[in-house]
Structures are given as structure tokens and as C-alpha cells.
TrEMBL record:
Pfam families: Lipase_GDSL_2 (PF13472). Its EC number is 3.1.1.1. The keyword Kinase does not apply. The keyword Hydrolase applies. CDD domains: Lysophospholipase_L1_like. This is Esterase TesA. Transmembrane segments: none annotated.
Length: 186
């Protein structure tokens, strides 16, 4: 979703978030390292070389494709912990963004997978947003939300949906930028 699947580049999450940050005069430049269809394992495999010296902070928004594939929660947790370990080694603050887990694999799977994000955010002292899509899913009846804010696949938000997500995520990204500035001032 961060890569911008199915959207024009200027309609995607990173472009819209960059516009939001520019309007807020945040002096932040985003780099889109999202990969369409990515899993926590893919993110872990790229984390070390993605966090080059010019990267001051990282947003980790992975897990949705793990759930779609039925990945065991403990595997996803280990992959996300590995990403956070690499960020900690490189002294890069993180904003961790969770997902809403459906009950397709049962309530135990849902609760175990959902807990990954709050547990890791506490363990690694990261900023946390509970769910990437929650700003959309809380709008109203899901049938209306799907028709108005999602692409035809019912999974990926359209440009209007991304705009709502950005309005919700933007303040936390500003907080992440403030953490970077505070570290630089020390």
C-alpha cells in the first residue's frame, strides 16, 4: 500500500504524504522503499541496505501480505523484530504501523497477529499507529467505504482513501521527524 499499487505516482501514499508534510512545512523528504506485495520477510531482507546513512528515520508498514498468505504470527513477529533490530543498530527511529487483521484464520490468529505491533512498539520504544487502514474502516458501513475509498480489488485504497489515511498518519510522521531533529540537536 505504501508503494502505491494501482495508483498514479502522485496519487500514492508516499507522494500524498510528502505533499502533506510540505504543506505542514516539516522539511522532510520521503523515500518510497515500499514494494508491492511485500511481506515482513521481504522487508527484513532489504532493511540493512535500505537504511543508508542518508536515512534519518523509517516507517515500517508491513504485515498485510503476511496475513493474506496465512504466515504464522511468530514468523511475522520475528521478521519485524529483525527490522527493528537493524534500525536500532543504525540509530534510526521508527514509526511502526499495524494492520487490522480479519478473522479468516480464527480469533487466536487475529489476536496474536494484532498484538505483534503493540508488543514490538513497546519493546523497541517506537512510535505506533495501530492500523494503516483504520481511518477508512471507521468511516461508516463497509459496503459504502469499499465503493468510495478502495480500488476494485477491495484491498488497496484509491486516491481518495489514501488522502484520508495521510491525514491520519501525517501527525505521527511529523512526530517522527521531531524525534530526528531532537537527536540531531543533542
Amino acid at each position: 500500500m505504501t508503494q502505491g499499487y494501482g495508483l498514479l505516482q502522485e496519487e500514492g501514499f508516499t507522494a500524498q504524504l510528502q505533499d502533506w508534510l510540505d504543506a505542514a512545512q516539516s522539511d522532510v523528504t520521503l523515500i518510497n522503499a515500499g514494494v508491492s506485495g511485500d511481506t515482513t520477510a521481504g522487508g527484513l531482507s532489504r532493511a540493512d541496505w535500505t537504511l543508508t546513512p542518508d536515512v534519518d528515520a523509517m516507517i515500517v508498514a508491513l504485515g498485510g501480505n503476511d496475513v493474506l498468505r496465512g504466515t504464522a504470527p511468530e514468523i511475522a513477529r520475528a521478521n519485524l523484530a529483525g527490522i527493528l533490530d537493524i534500525a536500532a543498530l543504525k540509530n534510526v527511529p521508527v514509526l511502526l504501523i499495524g494492520i487490522d487483521v480479519p478473522e479468516n484464520y480464527g480469533t487466536d490468529y487475529k489476536s496474536q497477529f494484532t498484538a505483534i505491533y503493540t508488543d514490538l512498539a513497546a519493546e523497541y520504544d517506537t512510535l505506533l499507529i495501530d492500523s494503516f487502514l483504520r481511518p477508512l474502516t471507521e468511516i461508516g458501513p463497509m459496503s459504502e467505504v469499499l465503493n468510495t475509498y478502495f480500488q476494485g480489488d477491495g484491498i488497496h485504497p484509491n486516491a481518495k482513501g489514501v488522502s484520508i489515511i495521510v491525514q491520519s498518519v501525517g501527525p505521527s510522521v511529523s512526530d517522527l521527524a521531531d524525534q530526528v531533529r531532537a537527536r540531531s540537536a543533542q
